[in-house]
């Protein structure tokens, strides 16, 4: 299956959760399998009960037979390089902006990093149903913000949609048909390149997100950079200095479906997966097939920066 990996960047309250919920509802995955919605909710309740991550870091929707992995970015500056690591898994980004609030400086950090990585963001001016919406001004604000952050001409020529996540539509014009989110789905598929990764090399991924789960233990999420992961395969964990930290097996191999993580037998280059079964692996280690003896070029961890708004 074809894949697109995108980050979603938004200031808190600008409607990220509502929009992603609508993308889930309107995506093919739900039409193919109505139980997904129920299951996703169940797992959320379970997580709430267990007091762990409530919001999915990665949501996966299927549209026209293409899997779109949507990765959440922290809405603020961070100290550990998490933003860079997350952005290293994606080939595009949606910058979601409230049509009344405008481009708030808090998203500057993440947008700046996305532009510096050469990503060409899609801008969604959201909540245009608000009576105090000022979509045209906000469009100009976003342009000015991108320019101030050093965007190149191509990045400044960003595709843009007006939307109401709450009403479940996105459109190129304010006078548009206001039907559904199909324009946003198509824009993502057309504008964001597919991950161009080598499927024939031996398996390797970079551990990008580390979580602890009461049942699974250490869960490491990352994008498969090359090859294919299979359930239970023996793997080597390599640190950036080239040393082998441990060897073990992928006792759990999980792929994202909706808001849920489901066990799969195998996953291919470009997909974002979560693995368990390793006791020492951490971020940003390389998890790879036994024959791999070099870590993938690790993403440098930023030294703490104090000048952030
Ligand atoms: P998040 O913090 O970015 O995830 O934002 P939420 O999706 O939780 O939304 C924040 C608030 O904005 C909630 O009260 C939503 O009901 C409201 N909201 C979300 N989308 C829209 C929209 O399209 N139009 C309007 N008017 N309100 C919205």
From TrEMBL:
Family named by the database record: Belongs to the TRAFAC class translation factor GTPase superfamily. Classic translation factor GTPase family. BipA subfamily.
Lineage, opening ranks: Bacteria, Pseudomonadati, Pseudomonadota, Alphaproteobacteria, Acetobacterales
GO molecular function, one term: GTPase activity
Signal sequence extent: none
The EC number(s) this enzyme carries: 3.6.5.-
Native organism: Entomobacter blattae
A Gene Ontology biological process term: ribosomal large subunit assembly
Function of the molecule: A 50S ribosomal subunit assembly protein with GTPase activity, required for 50S subunit assembly at low temperatures, may also play a role in translation. Binds GTP and analogs. Binds the 70S ribosome between the 30S and 50S subunits, in a similar position as ribosome-bound EF-G; it contacts a number of ribosomal proteins, both rRNAs and the A-site tRNA.
Protein name: Large ribosomal subunit assembly factor BipA
Keyword Protein transport: no
Gene: typA
Range of the intact protein held here: 1 to 309 of 607
């Amino acid at each position: 299956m074809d894949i697109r990996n995108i980050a979603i960047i938004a200031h808190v309250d600008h409607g990220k959760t509502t929009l992603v919920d609508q993308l889930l509802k309107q995506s093919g995955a739900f039409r193919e399998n109505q139980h997904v919605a129920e299951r996703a909710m169940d797992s959320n309740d379970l997580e709430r009960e267990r007091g762990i991550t409530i919001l999915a870091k990665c949501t996966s929707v299927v549209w026209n037979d293409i899997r779109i992995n949507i990765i959440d970015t922290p809405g603020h500056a961070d100290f550990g390089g998490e933003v860079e690591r997350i952005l290293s898994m994606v080939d595009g980004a949606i910058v979601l902006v409230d049509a009344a609030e405008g481009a708030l400086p808090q998203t500057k950090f993440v947008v700046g990093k996305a532009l510096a990585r050469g990503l060409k963001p899609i801008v969604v001016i959201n909540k245009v149903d608000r009576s105090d919406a000022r979509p045209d001004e906000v469009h100009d604000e976003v342009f000015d913000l991108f320019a101030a952050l050093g965007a190149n001409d191509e990045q400044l020529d960003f595709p843009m949609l007006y939307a109401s996540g709450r009403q479940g539509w996105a459109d190129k014009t304010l006078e548009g048909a206001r039907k559904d989110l199909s324009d946003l789905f198509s824009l993502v598929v057309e504008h964001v390149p597919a991950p161009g990764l080598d499927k024939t090399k031996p398996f390797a991924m970079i551990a990008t997100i580390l979580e602890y789960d009461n049942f699974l233990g250490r869960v490491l999420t990352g994008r498969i950079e090359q090859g294919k992961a299979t359930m239970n395969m023996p793997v080597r964990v390599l640190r950036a200095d080239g040393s082998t930290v441990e060897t073990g097996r992928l006792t759990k191999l999980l792929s994202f479906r909706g808001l849920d993580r489901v066990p799969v037998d195998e996953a291919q280059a470009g997909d974002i997966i979560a693995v368990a079964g390793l006791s020492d692996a951490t971020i940003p280690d390389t998890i790879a097939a036994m024959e791999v003896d070099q870590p993938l070029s690790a993403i440098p961890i930023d030294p703490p920066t104090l000048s952030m708004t």
